[in-house]
Structure prediction request, 324 residues.
Amino acid sequence: MLALLVTSLILVGCDSEVAAPDDLRFGQLGQVQVRVTSPVLGGAGRLEEALSWRSDGPWALAERLSYQEILGSETVRRPQLNPGDLTAEYNSLIQQLTETPGLRLFGDETPQGLEPVCLPERSRVEVLIRDRSRNQEARWVRCAEGTLFTMTPGSAGPDPGASRVITAAQLARFFTLGEGAISSYFGSIPFRSMDRGSDSGARLEAPVAFVSQGSSPPSDWLDFWERHSASSAPAPEVDWEREMVVVASAGRRTEAGDSLQVTRILPIDDGTRVEMVLRVPGNFCSPAGRIAWPYHIIVAPRTPQPVTFADPRVERVPCGGPPA
Prediction:
């Protein structure tokens, strides 16, 4: 499968004669980083994907979805298997990026000094290889269409060598996450967090969406906010003609450490579906007993009605780890 992928991505053309780094290949002891910043919903929001992979195997993919420059949700993925099993794959990637004709980044075809300004509808792609033994790094920035999971070399620019940078990002994602992986925020409209915590004063047993019929806030929203915040301070500003507020709630919880996060807002055929994740301490943790009402309040562009909620996906986190 990997051979087929590499073959399909190899570009037609000749390489200039550039010697590979001496002794160890550049980055063979070190780290590969890929960062993709993509516009969402015509630029109203943004998806940031940052993949970091060390030569001894461990990798992590951090994804952040924002709306109007304010973070809405973030997730982090790590290997499901022993990270040490990925050292051979890491070395294979480094070999291809330093030696394979049509793929290698070190040469006149892919200068490192470019800092292109990508068009608003295109993504900014950065590939960085850090070499620990030399205490050096090599970095390339190019533009493409799509996210880390959907971009293709054919959409790369502004120079012909840009397709190699996009291919490098694709290969790093393929080696770590696999062929069928998708973004945690695939298909979601952007949204921003208004408030998030472990104990809402509103004590909601179920999630709810607040949608206005005009420019004024819904009356039940003002009542909710007063109970939630337990104060007479005015509710945060919302453009009710264009936006809505979604309150994710998992009801009453009886253990400390539970947290709730909206992950996706998906326009569907008959309305909108909101997905969320409930993170709880792992099986072998001993959390303290505590009554709590975890919540996540977000603001999003108004979507087709009605707004429905999927059951929270339960995710167990390691003992002592901070809720994400």
In short: The chain has two domains: 22-177, 192-316. The first helix runs from residue 2 to 9.
